[in-house]
Write the structure tokens for this entry.
Amino acid sequence: MLVAMADLRMAMQVRYVKLGIVGMGALGPLMAIIMISVFVIFPTTEEETSLILGIMIPMAGTLLAVFSVIPATLIAANSLVGEREQDTLEPLLCTPLTDRELLWGKTLSSLIPSLTILLAGTAVVMIVTNVIFVLYGRPMMLVPDLAGLFLILTAGPAIILTAVSINILISGKVKRVYEAYQTSGAIILVLMIPMFAPIIGMESGIPNTSMVWTVNIVTTLIAATLMIVTWSLAVKRFNRDRMISLR
Amino acid sequence: MDEVVLTGLTKNFGELVAVSEVNLEVPEGTIFGLLGPNGAGKSTTIRLLCTLLRPSDGTATVAGYDIIQNPVDVRQITGVLPEEGNHTLYPSMTGYENLQYFARLYGVPEEEIDGRIEELLTFMELWDRRDDKAGQLSTGNRQRLALCRALLHKPKVLLLDEPTSALDPVAAKRVRELILNFAKKYKQTFFINSHNLAEVQRICDSIAIIDEGKIVLTGKTTELREKLHGLQEYEIRVTGGVSKAESVLKTVDYVEIQRAEIDTIVVRIRDPMQNNSKLMRKLLDAGINIVEFSEEEATLEDLYLQTIKGGAK
């Protein structure tokens, strides 16, 4: 926890990381709220509104998950490769921390803020959209819907942990923070599958709920597999020698 | 008892042999200096000893703990000042916070942390700057702060990589005093990397010279000083030019002329205790007016250079 707190504090000193955390933390919920509310606030036919909400509400969950992964990649890239770049890694590796303790510290520093962003963002979206629904005379709804919440609570943390594990894995191979950030950031692509599922799965103008669930469950399974594989590899392959030799 | 023992310690980086079959013993409570030019393998040796790097072959023990078998124990009982230590602090944390963070990582009891930090910062004359961000401190102050960090958990062995590099002479002197004080007060063992020969000569009990990853010379500083006698040079300043004196000196079998300048000849004299007065008499008898006959103090640098060049191998 000590390492995690220090890491987070250091990360917040880097301007683009700070902007990334605050920006992404706000952008996800904001986009989800706008996406859903705009069709409620501006009058369309009831049929159109129901159809659009049927697409947008499942997408909201994915959107929130995507925007919570970005801060994780930013913090994780800074906490290992960034420390080496700043020359602060060597004293840390000289402390009696075991590899596992060190990696948990590094992981928690990314996991805690990202999960906070994800859960707080979800709560904000849930509250704000329903306030808008009530104000505009619509019945209250679960936003994100159940399939979205399932994705947020399962695939979200799994993808965040995968992003951190990838950072640990590549920390002995890449020299610069931006390389680490770009490489681990690619994991967001996994969340693109459920993002488009509501549109692709539409059948004669009606969103296919069972397909959304199926895609979300498959995404969760992929995310969980990736998480287990990358975390195991990260712990197994973490090598102080390689971290120090690569200068 | 030997506190640090290196046995055939070897480290390769691909084709490059950074440290080659190094064998060394450093007794408990002594200050040991590892001397060598840049790229000789000094920093790699320290990184191997603090378990940052894994040896390609051989091993080492620190306070009885094997660096391969017991890396966590080794890290617990060593304090490390890495190369360019002044860059290794968290710049956005204050000096106090930097030390507090590492004290906790090293498991210093919570109730002792504040007292220990105060003691070290006061000793280093940094107490008044404790709330300054580390990034805002001068190079010298950062180096002293990094040294405080290495000493925080009262380690049995201190591994210091170029502790006075990048320091002005006053700050360097302060660091040397600190090392001597701590070695005396806490009976700690110091393993110091340096290319500053004068520094090593002043504070180290024993030294080793490393070149191209191999130990080329090792011994107690006092023993090595004795070896310097053969390298002792004498400066003879005369009036009326050096050519006459030079021709006289060439006839003397225990004198080796090193160089001749306008009014000065630098020579090495075999068995100077016996021959110096004899030589002076000979020169005076030849009508040479001696203005000055002085001993140039030989330093470890002479021995070091001679060793590195291959002369004393």
Summary: Chain A touches chain B through 22 residues (CB under 8 Å).
